[in-house]
């Protein structure tokens, strides 16, 4: 308990809460059910009536099938109908029972529910750190943040594997193209020094290498350091290429949803402004790590900028708050974007009406039902980058030694920095051998943890997590911008 303390109680409570509450309430399910409207595909009977085809009166022809049954439906039971049929699609609210059959629903639900619990644990831990002593405790919320990041990358890798296995090959070529693009981009970013992009990678790695050498010397091992800085950069390039490739389809998907949302909400000026802010806010986040544009201007650190508007600690806190604000805005806009995706079914039917020729009835039904079937896949592509940004920010703040309240000034920062409670003087109790061995083990673990903290210092975490946070945001925005350019040209043509 001296090492974990009350955080262990928070974690156990959240695990139990997640397990007990999931059958009755799910945050991910609540975000989709009763908040969205989907389009229902026409039944065989409706299509035959519109096409003037006599119905056979067989059982079940007037009922709608789910997408999985539709995929297994034999082709010989279908029929041909004109493309210009006056089809009017029925609508229905998305209910919880409808979501079970959707692809990636379980992954989406788990990701949303687990991330909500991780946020709760993180907030409780931050409050606990304000009001209590925490010199020797291990921050358990870091594990929750790391697990959420791992789950996000895992589900994105699963989707990427699906795109690579497609028979058409267009998605595969697109992934390799963007992968090469991000390979070149990451090499260019890492060449730029800390005087322009202030990640602090060089200083952080130097600090880590020196701490590792000292730690190994205390263990009786002679070493010149873990790896060279060039090798470290090569590893970062490989990781950045993989992350950028995983951001390809989430970025392109967000571009399509952004343009469709602007089209569907032309009458609402406030929503239009909010959508544009949502699109441009990542540019602000990216520029906040460009030292000549952000820190030198706001903190007066450059040669031509003498006025100081913020102190360095305030600026660091402001960056974290802006990233969290970006995540909150995008989470609030999630129902609007997902509704824009569901509206694609109506758009496809309206576009089909303008074409000549005939279409198979089963293909028409699949065209409409497929939009709803991939709803959770779209939701995962939308929410996973948001969670990556949010939890990388949490890790940067916690492991990098930053403060949320520093932006409000030293008085508020000191108020929330925690206070030292006076130690109560008490006589040492008489302990048996078992209690003594437990305390010795805890003391040994605390010493080992202190040695590791001397290796993995806040300077190291500042450089590492700042870089990954910036890279996820930059890669996602780059894919989104290219997608906006592509879909805008397609719409114009």
From TrEMBL:
Sequence intervals crossing the membrane: 110-129, 141-164, 173-193, 227-249, 269-290, 318-338, 371-396, 468-487
Record GO cellular component, one term: membrane
Lineage top rank: taxon: Eukaryota
UniProt entry keywords in alphabetical sequence: Glycoprotein, Membrane, Transmembrane, Transmembrane helix
UniProt entry tagged with the keyword Nucleotide-binding: no
Compartment(s) of residence: Membrane
Bilayer topology annotation: Multi-pass membrane protein
Family of the protein in this entry: Belongs to the TMEM161 family.
Name assigned to this protein: Transmembrane protein 161B
């Amino acid at each position: 308990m001296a090492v974990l303390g009350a955080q262990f109680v928070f974690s156990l409570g959240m695990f139990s809460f997640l397990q007990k509450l999931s059958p009755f309430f799910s945050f991910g399910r609540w975000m989709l059910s009763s908040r969205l409207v989907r389009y229902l595909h026409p039944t065989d009977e409706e299509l035959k009536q519109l096409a003037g085809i006599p119905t056979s009166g067989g059982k079940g022809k007037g009922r709608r099938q789910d997408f999985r049954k539709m995929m297994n439906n034999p082709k010989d039971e279908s029929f041909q109908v004109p493309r210009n049929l006056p089809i009017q699609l029925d609508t229905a609210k998305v209910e919880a029972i409808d979501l079970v059959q959707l692809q990636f629903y379980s992954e989406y639900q788990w990701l949303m529910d687990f991330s909500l619990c991780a946020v709760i644990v993180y907030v409780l831990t931050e409050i606990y750190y304000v009001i209590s002593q925490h010199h020797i405790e291990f921050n358990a919320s870091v594990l929750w943040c790391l697990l959420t990041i791992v789950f996000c990358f895992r589900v994105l890798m699963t989707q990427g594997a699906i795109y690579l296995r497609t028979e058409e090959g267009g998605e595969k070529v697109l992934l390799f193209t963007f992968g090469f693009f991000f390979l070149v981009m990451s090499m260019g970013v890492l060449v730029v020094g800390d005087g322009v992009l202030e990640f602090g990678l060089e200083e952080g790695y130097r600090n880590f290498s020196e701490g590792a050498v000292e730690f190994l010397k205390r263990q009786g091992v002679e070493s010149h350091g873990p790896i060279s800085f060039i090798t470290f950069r090569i590893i970062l390039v490989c990781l950045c290429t993989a992350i950028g490739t995983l951001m390809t389809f989430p970025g392109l998907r967000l571009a399509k949803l952004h343009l469709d949302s602007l089209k569907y909400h032309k009458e609402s000026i406030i929503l239009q402004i909010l959508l544009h802010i949502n699109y441009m806010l990542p540019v602000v986040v990216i520029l906040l790590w460009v030292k000549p544009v952000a820190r030198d201007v706001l903190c007066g650190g450059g040669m031509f900028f003498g006025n100081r508007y913020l102190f360095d600690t305030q600026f660091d806190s402001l960056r974290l708050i802006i990233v969290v604000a970006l995540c909150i805005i995008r989470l609030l806009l999630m129902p609007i974007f997902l509704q824009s995706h569901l509206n694609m079914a109506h758009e496809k039917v309206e576009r089909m009406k303008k074409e000549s020729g005939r279409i198979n009835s089963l293909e028409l039904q699949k065209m409409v039902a497929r939009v709803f079937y991939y709803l959770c896949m779209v939701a995962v592509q939308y929410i996973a980058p948001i969670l990556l940004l949010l939890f990388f920010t949490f890790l940067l703040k916690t492991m990098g030694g930053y403060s949320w309240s520093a932006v409000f000034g030293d008085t508020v920062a000191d108020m929330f920095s925690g206070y030292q409670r006076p130690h109560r003087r008490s006589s040492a109790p008489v302990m048996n051998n078992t209690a003594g061995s437990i305390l010795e083990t805890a003391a040994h673990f605390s010493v080992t943890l202190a040695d590791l903290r001397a290796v993995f210092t806040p300077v190291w975490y500042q450089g590492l997590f700042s870089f990954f946070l910036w890279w996820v945001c930059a890669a996602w925005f780059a894919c989104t911008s290219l997608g906006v350019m592509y879909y805008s040209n397609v719409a114009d043509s």
